[in-house]
Structures are given as structure tokens and as C-alpha cells.
Amino acid sequence: SYSTVAWGASAAKGVKENVQYTSTSTSTAGSVFDFFNALGTVAFAYAGHNVVLEIQASIPSTPEKPSKVPMWRGCIVAYIIVALCYFPVAIIGYWMFGNAVEDNVLISLEKPAWLIAMANFFVVLHVIGSYQIFAMPVFDMIESVLVKKMNFEPSRILRFVVRNVYVAFTMIVAITIPFFGGLLGFFGGFAFAPTTYFVSH
Fold first, then answer.
1. What's the family (predicted)?
2. Considering only CA atoms, which of 195, 198, 200, 199 is closest in space to residue 49?
């Protein structure tokens, strides 16, 4: 996968000359913000919180065999897999490039171009597949509102139009916001806290 390419190529490239591991922040406030941004980034890496409840709702549940048991096991396995994919990228990327590492470690690599292109191709494949899963609750919500409250006739055409308009909208937003790395902390914390902590308690 692209994460393996990222940490493998970083390790093969070796430690950058004059690498520095000191904080880039020059003030206490900056260090605090960097800390919380890092927490948000880690939370964002464990994406999928918005579909967890939808998945659990589809699992048969009885008082004797509640759905939370297999769901909890599935979450543990999923989180372990995510950790095995992303933690090597974070650790080796920082080890090789220090505080000069980019939000996207592939940018720090610079070359070979073919390897970076291959990793980005894997990213595209990953996003195409995962987007369908993450967006499904939004699709359902929009279609439910249109059918139940706005009296649209449920049909394949409605589904086709709604989903394509939503995808186009999110694509435009993504293109017009080039500083995605800076927003990871906000979106990570925003999605992680209410759906993981508050819902589970």
C-alpha cells in the first residue's frame, strides 16, 4: 500500500543531512497548538467514526448476544491494522526528515518520481473505495430528507443526481482548500470527540 511505500522509501533514502528534531514553534502557545494539532491528526488517521454506528445498526442484536460485542472486536482489529499502516510512516518519516517533514511524507521524498507516482496512485484507489463507505450515511440522510420532507419520488435518477452533486461539492471544497494539513487537527478533534467518546458513554 501507499503507507508501506512511504515508510519504506523514507528508510531507504536515509536520514536527511543536518536533520533537526527540535520543535518548530517559537512560543509556548505555538507548542500547545502543535500538540493539539498532532492529537487531531492521529484522531483523523483513525477515520470511520461516522460509519461505525451505521455498521453496528446492521448487525443482528439480542439481549443475549448484543451487537456491541462483535462490533468492539471489529473496532479493535481495525484500529490495530490502521496503527500498523500509519505509525511506521510517522515514526520513520520523522526519523529521516526531522521537523522538515511535510504533511505528506511523499513530498519530502522528492524522488524517485515513479515511486511517488505509484504511491499516489494507491492513494487514489484507496480514496475511491473508502469515499463510498464514508459518504454513505450522508447519502442516506440527504435522500431521506428529499423523499420524506420534500416529497421527491424515490428513484435511481434521484439517487444518481444527489450523489453526484454531493461528490462534486466535496471535490470543489477540497480543491479550494489547499491547506488540508492545517485543518487535520480541527476535523480530527471535531469528528473524534463526539462520535467516539460522547456516543460511547
1. Belongs to the amino acid/polyamine transporter 2 family. Amino acid/auxin permease (AAAP) (TC 2.A.18.1) subfamily.
2. 195
